[in-house]
Specification:
The complex is a heterodimer of chains A (268) and B (280). Chain A has 268 residues and is mostly helical. Chain A is 77% helix and 0% strand. In chain A, helix 5 packs across helix 11 and helix 10 runs parallel beside helix 11. The radius of gyration of chain A is 22 Å and the shape is globular. At the A-B interface, helix 9 and helix 10 of A face loops of B.
């Protein structure tokens, strides 16, 4: 997945070290307060296990290989669903942004479908696909589709018409006009869509895995609940938080790399 | 109109050595070396809905002439320019260049620079090459055009970091890079501050002399028109109301008595007609 491939380049960005660390101060304080509250007995372990217990549970699951397998399964579902739904949303956004006929033909339908909460389809999806992989992929793809579709469409529609006129005056073909004017102009808006979609991607996946799955992080959490393993439940939740943060950072890095022309990303 | 009066002040900048060279170069060139295209317009009409913007324009511009078009806002001067540049289609009448003009031969420069914010300065200039963009010497030509406008050191910058005047110079380089034979300017200096405007006027005059294209400048600034043009056309109600030759030898000194007198007489015409047609 291209979002992840670009991750190692974070270091090449000239982010001052302090800036990178400062954002972790609040989470760190929360963990410390949490630990103290649990160890002192202020919070009973039945309600919330101490971070150290959660870490221990994580370590055990890591050794057994279960944790890595479940994370991998969830990650795979999330990214494949994202690519499928995002790809289709992007394609529809392009078509409807560039062609009046296409827009008239499909936009109303898509807007109607958009207003159905996609998680409301879970019962139907289980009937269709069972608790198969395709059920999760379908739900993730559907959830991811709309933010990417809407923002791609909006981005293309709001490209400065004066720039498009300029491109035509200077003899750009339709292909060049798209590549050099319309697409770069729509990119900031597309990225907004991507970041919305990443949030929806995790949300959908967690819900789908909690309800109908035989592997994955959501399944792991549900299994742990059955056996009253509260430390594993909390661990799953924390991993969701981390993965969500990771996806968001990846899209930010990608944004920085592709929108370096944008005044908002320029260093002075 | 009041804006125009600002430029009646004498030009107080010290004359530099390069200015002497410049002046010698400006004086040396005669009209016979022009590589511009002549332009003939017959019976040109254009309406937008009910509103008839141009009501029969007949005009001949000899090759290499610098023509300024002035008039009150809404008089149709910008529409005339957009028709010449092929950005609009006319309802009636013809526009012909002396010979078959290639698309690269006619270029326009607008009030807004219209640079691609996501392309570096040099790539923005390369856009101006049109179909030659892919040729091997594209970069060399673009660099040459940037040097022409004095921005060769900004080639790798993003447009967002340039000043308004610099952006407009990049837009000029983009218009010049294909060696156009007709260059149409639609209020190119309208959004610039007074000092930047004066230096841009000098730049426009210099490139026009060096590259000898036919120049058509739409402006609301009469002092700019008389300082730069060989001929000033005053458009009123969709027709050419006055055709004034500016027989003042170049290089012209801004604020000189003859320029001021000519400017005054054109302004009087404009104000007079404004009073006649005023509904207030």
């Amino acid at each position: 997945m291209s979002l992840i491939e670009s991750l190692p380049r974070v270091r090449s960005l000239r982010l001052p070290r302090a800036d990178g660390l400062i954002q972790w101060i609040v989470p760190l304080i929360i963990v410390v307060v949490w630990q103290v509250a649990c160890v002192s007995g202020f919070v009973p372990a039945r309600v919330l296990p101490a971070p150290s217990d959660v870490a221990l549970a994580g370590w055990k699951l890591l050794l057994s290989g279960e944790l890595a397998r479940n994370i991998w399964v969830s990650f795979w579902r999330a990214s494949v669903g994202f690519v499928i739904g995002g790809g289709i949303g992007f394609a529809f956004g392009l078509m409807n942004g560039l062609s009046q006929i296409s827009s008239k033909l499909t936009d109303t339908t898509l807007q109607m479908v958009r207003n159905i909460p996609h998680l409301a389809l879970i019962p139907l999806v289980i009937l269709w696909f069972g608790i198969d992989e395709s059920a999760k992929l379908f739900l993730v793809a559907l959830g991811v589709f709309f933010p990417i579709y809407l923002n791609t469409l909006h981005g293309i529609r709001t490209v400065d018409p004066q720039l498009i006129e300029m491109g035509r005056i200077y003899g750009m073909t339709d292909g060049e006009l798209f590549r050099r004017v319309i697409f770069p102009g729509a990119l900031p808006s597309i990225f907004v869509g991507v970041r919305f979609a990443l949030g929806i991607m995790w949300l959908t996946l967690i819900v789908a895995e909690t309800i109908a799955a035989s592997s994955g992080l959501g399944y792991m959490a549900m299994q742990a609940r059955e056996f009253m393993l509260i430390d594993v439940v909390v661990l799953s939740i924390l991993i969701y938080a981390l993965l969500g943060k990771l996806a968001d950072s990846a899209s930010r890095v990608l944004e920085r790399l592709t929108l370096s022309w944008h005044p908002a990303f320029q260093k002075h | 109109m009041q804006e125009a009066l600002r430029f009646l002040l004498p030009d107080a900048e010290p004359v530099e050595r390069t200015d002497f060279l410049e002046q010698a170069r400006l004086a040396r060139r005669g009209p016979e070396v022009s590589r511009g295209l002549p332009l003939t317009i017959r019976g040109l009409r254009k309406s937008f809905g009910e509103n008839e913007v141009l009501r029969g324009i007949d005009l001949h511009i000899p090759a290499g002439q610098f023509v300024a078009i002035v008039g009150r806002s809404g008089c149709g001067k910008s529409t005339l320019l957009r028709l010449i540049a092929g950005l609009e289609t006319s309802d009636a009448g013809t526009i012909s260049f002396g010979e078959q003009a290639r698309p690269e031969d006619v270029r326009v420069m607008f009030q807004e620079p219209r640079l691609l914010p996501w392309a570096r300065v040099l790539s923005n200039v390369e856009v101006g090459l049109g179909r030659d963009r892919a040729s091997s010497n594209a970069q060399i030509r673009a660099e040459k055009a940037l040097t022409e406008v004095g921005l060769d050191d900004k080639r790798g910058q993003w447009p967002a970091v340039l000043s308004g005047g610099q952006k407009q110079r990049v837009a000029l380089a983009r218009a010049l890079v294909s060696d156009p034979r007709v260059l149409a300017f639609d209020e190119p200096l309208g959004a610039l501050d007074a000092l930047t405007r004066i230096s841009m006027q000098r730049l426009l005059e210099r490139v026009w002399h060096d590259q000898a294209f036919t120049a058509i400048l739409v402006t609301h600034d009469v002092s700019e028109a008389v300082a730069l043009a060989d001929r000033v056309l005053v458009i009123e109600d969709g027709r050419i109301a006055h055709d004034v030759a500016v027989d003042i030898p170049r290089p012209r000194r801004r604020g000189s008595a003859d320029l001021a007198a000519l400017e005054g007489s054109i302004l009087r015409e404009l104000l007079l007609s404004a009073d006649e047609t005023s509904d207030l």
